[in-house]
Design a protein that fits this description.
heterotrimer, A mainly alpha (705), B mainly alpha (213), C alpha+beta (229), A: 705 residues, mainly alpha, Cytochrome C Oxidase, Chain A, two-stranded antiparallel ribbon, 22 helices, C: 229 residues, alpha+beta, Immunoglobulin-like, 2 domains, five-stranded mixed beta sheet, 11 strands, 39% helix
Chain lengths: 705, 213, 229
């Protein structure tokens, strides 16, 4: 009877190790804190109406940022620090503690950590930030009010959140995550060699959020292809929109491959099929083949929007249009095309032979060409420009150095005979981190800094932005340059302990120091946000165009109203807003605006999807069936709802706009003189302000007592 | 309508047009949904391609057991093909009726489509049951795993299509044939035709090619 | 072009006439019947047949795409066509690429002996349908004690997938090899096992037949073992 209701859940599944207890306590306390905060400030209804059930891509974008940022710091980044620490003290001549033979993490635990780190960073941090950026900025750039399907947008977001919850579920139930590496190679991912629930958590968190990604990608493609403002042909779209389009077309192509492959692994584990098993006809190599068909284009899905971000930033801060628009777009398209034909370079050493290796090695080297075209276009854009070295520009310059390093080492790895030395060494790990950190993460940071005024109504503190950048640069160099060297010295990846005689420990210690410097950079980024909020009034964006931008998103107020534009702009050229500024901006015209209503159906479907996954993980059959059925029923209810929009009449729009301008004028007055970055709060001022505030709180409490 | 012609007139001044803005808000929405669903069908096709690729690689791995040539009834597969093909045809006729606004014809033609789909499923379930009864299950060997997954996934899609069809027809009976229902029928028929196309490849690659040795 | 167009014509995925459905239906029937009869009557065989069948399938797909799905009959832009063509391209790449890669991997598998030892160590009983001979479940364990220059028992009777352990209780190091001295054979991928006092060596009996083993350094120490399937 108990087995029917609880499947394989037992009391042993509850937290009983230091990290599961710690993790559960952390999440539990955080949840409690927010519940208390919302109750005391009476903001439950506001949260539900304004944020959770919102279909506004601007709101959804911010929610993506919050979840992705949280996963970056609380999980992915923390795991990185844990690994750096383990490797620094895990040398064979140092004693272990906390039950480990060397260092403080057992081998099993270390394996679970690097697996989780990879999954979380790729699926829940990088994809989350990218989707947030595209959601917020693309509709503004193409002159649209919303995405093509607001319902799919919110559904995609909440499926992503269900994946986030699932990947953290092991803290509460099960106590183990997969220990297979982030892509879980067969036959290690099978029930014979990974019998625990950890692997199932991996499958279902990826599967649920993967479906959300596919739906989101379809939505973005529909939007970019069908909802551009009149006059904006494909060759007049801004670069970030192009990068997003290429990225989403690739995403829509490859995520079905991942969905199918994960289902096959699930069938092997759950129904005893023999796709990738070592017995009865299975072929484990087919798994590696299929998963990398997804895995390689995925990294281009992540980096293409970053290319788009940087193209915008370079043009704006060089005060020039892009050196050759056509060339850079062809570069992005070229990257997308070739990305789908190189996947075997992840397993050159698996024995496919020279013919196969030669073909894929060639394609891998060719893919460097369109990227290099982009790099030269950026340099040409800067040439003879009047460059402003704002913090987004700093991130760009850092990206150029680190990403180029990653790219060059990538070509080295793409030479099959050389790869037999590099494969699965730390050289490889340093290469791909150069690309994802230098490319994707720096792109995200640059994009968020660049578009922050548009999103929040005030710009970020430039000083702390630059401190953060330099910490990231120095920290990255301290951490990953030694990693390249270690790789060449023969250190393999995923090592939790090593022979002291190899002489590797000093390098690992250097890497740990680099990691701490990066952590300091993250601290500065958090301080940057807090300090900017403190100086909100001074940093306010009065015009909606703080950087003298070129594209349409700068033509609306900051932050943009819910409907983005009062009238859909008519476009005749590239850099449409630059053209508008030259011609003189027209008087606002008002028209009826159709807006989508909020909906909770995305939340409900995702809750059912989550329980379906959880039921599959723990073999709770009734829960799995109920989850699937519930999701289907909710989807039917939503799709047969014919009443999903409302209209704001033109007169109402005019009233809302005038009221907003009035309110802004009352709150902020005229633009003060000290808005430049040289007046930004310094670190000293920040510390003094915080300490003074904390002290005053303490004094008030003392007086009350 | 005055709004549309005026909007169109100002659009003309803007130069090159995207056709979407020649349409009314509703037509543009319809167009977007059809395109978006088409893109979704492409993703579904890609999912099937993985199953096909796996079948291509694993179909010979019977580990001594019987292969497709010994297990399949080509005649039954042909009958299934003809049933599905006919249902695709009746679905098309139902769509024509829907655009004409003829509610009775819609219910008739889609009713026939539904029954044919059910017949197809019945035959497929019968085939699966026979195999399982003889001891050839999806955990017997890699060939059977890939066979059951590929054909079974198609069967699951057919089942979803039938469920969807049933819901739409129920709403048509209740709410009548309004433009929302016509749009849903259009999407469903896209889905149904697409499933027939996938079946052509299953019939060819799984059933016909099993007898080419 | 500011003509106000009727709802019918502005749909981008087009709908057709009864005629197009009938034509498509009849053509599809023909394109199903022909391959069926070709297979049943074996008019063509082997690779030619496979190619022909695929050809018919692709043609029927195109027929249905045009007559049932009406692809390509809408106004510009032909996004649907572009997406369809690129999807087909990717499907070709996925399937052909997989077959290309997996066939090469299969062809490059190491010779049987090396494979067998690796397979036994890793517990892999088959690769792509071909048995490696590795045993998943180990049966009984048979001990061979080497003492005072003799191996006991002289003849070991075992079943397939049992295990056999060489226990050296002499102070001498012994190099256990298979076959009769000085010839060496390979048994189950194993060629030589060094046996010291206190360090027994176990092998899995994954090959049926009767075999001999001997100490290469002292051939007087030898024995037989029979493995029944």
């Amino acid at each position: 009877m108990k087995e029917f209701f609880l499947g394989r859940l037992t009391s042993q599944s509850l937290p009983h190790e230091w990290f599961t207890i710690g993790g559960s306590a952390f999440f539990g306390l955080a949840a409690l804190f927010f519940i208390v905060l919302l109750t005391v400030t009476k903001r439950w209804k506001w949260l539900w109406k304004e944020w959770l059930t919102s279909v506004d891509p601007k709101r959804i974008g911010i929610m993506y940022f919050i979840v992705a940022g949280f996963m970056l710091i609380a999980r992915g980044g923390l795991e990185a620090l844990m690994m750096w620490l383990q490797q620094a003290i895990g040398s064979s001549n140092m004693p272990g503690f906390l039950g480990a033979s060397h260092g403080y993490l057992s081998s099993q635990h270390f394996q679970e950590i690097f697996t989780a780190h990879g999954n979380i960073m790729v699926f829940f941090v990088a994809m989350g930030f990218i989707f947030g950026l595209i959601n917020y900025i693309v509709p503004l750039q193409i002159g649209a009010r919303d995405l093509a399907s607001p319902f799919l947008n919110t559904l995609g977001f909440w499926l992503y959140v269900a994946g986030v919850v699932m990947v953290n579920m092991f803290f509460f139930f099960g106590g183990e995550y997969a220990a297979t590496g982030w892509l879980a190679v067969a036959p290690l991912n099978g029930i014979q060699f990974s019998p625990g629930v950890g692997m199932d958590y991996l499958i279902w968190s990826l599967q649920i959020s993967g479906i959300g990604t596919t739906l989101g990608a379809i939505n973005f493609i529909m939007t970019i292809l069908k909802m551009r403002s009149p006059g904006m042909g494909l060759w007049k779209m801004p670069a970030f929109t192009w990068g997003s389009l290429c990225s989403m077309i690739m995403a829509v192509t490859i995520f079905p491959l991942l969905t199918a492959t994960l289902f096959l692994v699930f069938f092997d584990r759950y129904f005893g099929t023999h796709f990738f098993t070592t017995t009865l006809g299975g072929n484990a190599m087919m798994y590696t083949n299929l998963i990398w068909m997804w895995g390689h284009p995925e990294v281009y899905v992540l980096v293409l929007p970053a290319y788009g971000v940087f193209t915008e930033i370079v043009a704006t801060f060089s005060r020039k249009p892009i050196a050759s628009y056509t060339t850079s777009i062809i570069g992005m398209i070229g990257v997308s095309l070739f990305a789908l034909s190189v996947w075997l370079h992840h397993f050159f050493t698996m024995g496919a032979g020279a013919d196969v290796n030669a073909f894929f090695g060639l394609m891998t080297m060719i893919i460097a060409v369109p990227t290099t075209v982009l790099v030269f276009t950026w340099i040409a854009t800067m040439h003879k420009g009047r460059i402003r070295y704002t913090s987004p520009m700093h991130w760009f310059l850092g990206f150029m150095i680190i990403f180029a390093l990653g790219g060059i080492t990538g070509v080295m790895l793409g030479v099959p005979p050389a790869d037999f030395q590099f494969h699965n060494s730390l050289f490889l790990v340093a290469h791909f981190h150069s690309n994802v950190i230098g490319g994707v993460l720096f792109g995200v940071f640059a994009g968020i800094t660049y578009w922050f005024p548009k999103m929040a109504g005030f710009r970020l503190n430039e000083r702390f932005g630059k401190y953060a950048f330099w910490c990231w640069m120095v920290g990255f160099s301290l951490s990953f340059i030694p990693m390249y060297i270690l790789g060449l010295m023969g250190a393999t990846r995923r090592l939790d302990t090593y022979d002291a005689a190899t002489g590797w420990q000093p390098f690992y210690i250097c890497m740990l120091i680099g990691g701490c410097v990066i952590a300091l950079g993250v601290a500065f980024q958090i301080i940057q946000i807090i300090a900017s909020v403190m100086e909100k009034k001074r940093l306010h964006d009065y015009t909606g165009d703080p950087w003298d931008g070129r594209t349409l998103e700068w033509s609306v107020s900051s932050p943009a109203p819910a409907y983005n534009f009062t009238t859909i702009p008519h476009v005749t050229t590239r850099d449409a807003f630059w053209e508008m500024k030259k011609q003189g901006i027209a008087k606002p015209q008002y028209e009826d605006i159709h807006m989508p209503k909020n909906t909770a159906s995305g939340i409900y479907i995702s809750i059912f999807a989550f329980f379906a996954g959880f039921g599959f993980v723990w073999h709770i059959t009734w829960m799995a069936i109920a989850g699937v059925a519930g999701a289907i029923v909710c989807a039917i209810i939503r799709t047969f709802d014919e009443n999903t929009e409302y209209t704001i009449p033109a007169a109402e729009v005019e009233k809302m706009e005038k009221a907003r301008l009035q309110k802004e004028h009352e709150e902020y007055g005229d633009k003060p003189a000290n808005t430049g970055p040289e007046y930004d709060m310094t670190l000293r001022e920040f510390i003094i302000t915080v300490v003074t505030w904390a002290w005053s709180v303490v004094r008030r409490k003392q007086r009350q007592a | 309508m005055a709004e549309t012609t005026e909007a169109v007139a100002t659009h003309e001044q803007a130069g090159a047009l995207t056709p979407e803005h020649e349409m009314s808000h509703e037509e543009a929405a319809n167009d977007r949904v059809m395109f978006g669903f088409w893109v979704y069908l492409m993703t579904d096709l890609l999912m099937f391609s993985v199953l096909f690729a796996v079948y291509a690689v694993l179909h010979a791995n019977t580990v001594g057991g019987p292969g497709g040539g010994q297990l399949f009834s080509l005649k039954q597969a042909l009958i299934e093909t003809l049933i599905l093909l006919t249902s695709s045809f009746t679905c098309g006729l139902g769509m024509i009726a829907a655009r004409k606004g003829d509610k009775t014809q819609v219910l008739a033609w889609f009713g026939v489509t539904f029954l044919l789909g059910l017949a197809f499923l019945g035959l497929e379930v019968k085939e699966f049951a026979e195999f399982v009864h003889e001891g050839h299950t999806l955990s017997s060997n890699a060939f059977l795993s890939s066979f059951f997954s590929l054909v079974g996934t198609h069967g699951l899609h057919i089942t979803s299509g039938l469920l969807w069809m049933g819901v739409i027809l129920a709403f048509v009976i209740k709410r009548g044939l309004n433009k929302h229902m016509v749009r849903k029928l259009a999407l469903l028929s896209l889905f149904w035709h697409f499933l027939d196309i996938v079946w052509i490849f299953i019939f060819t690659i799984v059933y016909l090619m099993a007898f080419t040795a | 072009m500011s003509k106000k167009q009727s709802p019918e014509n502005t749909q981008h995925t087009e709908h057709g006439t009864t005629a197009s459905y009938i034509v498509g239906f009849v053509l599809s029937l023909i394109f199903t019947a022909i391959p069926y009869y070709m297979v049943v009557n074996k008019t063509v065989t082997g690779r030619a047949l496979v190619a022909t069948l695929l050809g018919f399938a692709i043609w029927q797909m195109l027929i249905q795409i045009f007559f049932f799905l009406h692809l390509g009959r809408g106004p510009k832009p032909f996004y649907n066509v572009v997406f369809f063509v690129s999807t087909v391209g990717i499907i070709v790449m996925v399937t052909v690429g997989s077959i290309f890669i997996i066939n090469h991997l299969q062809a490059n598998m190491a010779p049987m002996d090396t494979t067998k030892k690796l397979a036994q160590d890793e517990g892999i009983s088959q690769v792509s349908g071909k048995q490696t001979g590795a045993c998943n479940d180990i049966g009984e364990n048979h001990k061979i004690i080497i003492k005072d220059g003799m191996a006991t028992p002289a003849h070991t009777q075992a079943k397939l997938c049992d295990s056999m352990t060489f226990i050296n209780e002499d102070s001498k190091v012994r190099d256990m090899a298979f076959g009769s001295h000085p010839n060496h054979e390979i048994y189950g991928g194993e060629s030589e096992e060094t046996a010291r006092k206190g360090y027994p060596k176990t092998i899995t009996l994954n090959q049926a037949g009767t075999y001999q083993y001997h100490d290469h350094l002292d051939p007087a120490v030898h024995g037989f073992f029979s493995v029944e399937p």
